[in-house]
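quick one, two chains, predict together pls
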Amino acid sequence: MNYFQKMRGNTKSPPRVGLAEMAWSWLGAFLGILAVALINYKFLDGTAQVMLIGSFGASAVLIYGAIKSPLAQPRNLLGGHVISAIIGVSVYKLFPGALWLAAPLAVATAIAVMHATRTLHPPGGATALIAVIGGTKIHALGYFYVLAPVGLGAAIMLAVALLVNNIPRSRSYPEYWF
Amino acid sequence: MGKKPAEPSRVHSPEISDEDIFAAMKEIPGYLDITPGDFKEVYQLAWRQARERLLRTAQAREIMTREVAWVRIDAPLQEVAALMARRKVSGVPVVDGSERVVGVISEKDFLRSMSSGGITSFMGVVAQCLKDKGCKALGLRQGKAADLMSAPAVTVAADTQVLEIIKLFKEKGINRAPVLDAQGRLIGIVSRGDLLKLDLRLAGGAS
């Protein structure tokens, strides 16, 4: 296949899921984000700590909406977020005055290291990016960002995934742990 | 749809279409994070793996022909030839009085004895017969299986793996091997045809 032929694609899109799958995806995502949002807005309001970051929205797509995907398994969810957070904070600390460089460097490095550690989790890219462009509140957390909101938030969402995804007979989570 | 470049050495799995895969994916509740195209590629590679594994691990007993035509060591060659013709086989094991396989007698052995100068092809013998005004087959009338057979017989055990058998055929330049059980009794025969049948079965061409 030549370069331009490749751009036409070579297969079809997977089928639409059933209504039950949509409903369970909705419920899991609602409860998972609800848990971290409650902590963020009800318990941590007015403090320097945050619990809700944008990349959790992306994780919700995977761990409640595509639960069979390797990208959605606990190893990838926890590993991908934590590793990317470490990389994001480190890159920001190295180039605090050059966000134009720190931003792509953090995301690209996060992807490469997630691959190397078999923990690829797409929201990890956002987690690394947020460490760089998340503003003063995130920057002030320093490496604590890795533990919370990232590590703890991901763990809470994982707990909700285990509880909700295993209720219907047609669903089972995870496929594997590590 | 784009076409993938043809790989000459690729072993094709039984044909599976994107529609088959799409339908199967629909039967599985939940979102599968894979395209039908990727699945097809995984399926084809997995099939090739399975095929190679089966080729490595299949044993003589699974592919051998059980209804073996065989002859006694003192059988007249006339009877041996008649049996081979009737059963449409090109070679038979030769068994002695205590049920041991002591040799194999094949078309090649007949051809060799019917021609001079090491000609072992049928047409070679025909050519010679026409030239010499007489067939040397007549000289075999008095012969017995023991006179013509290739001995000792190259045999395999019931659990000999197919890959080993293929190697053995190639090394010894033979086309068949009697299969013996642990007590050395004849239980079957594996021929090149049996190997071909296995290959076709694994390639999905015939059942």
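The longest strand of chain B covers residues 101-106.
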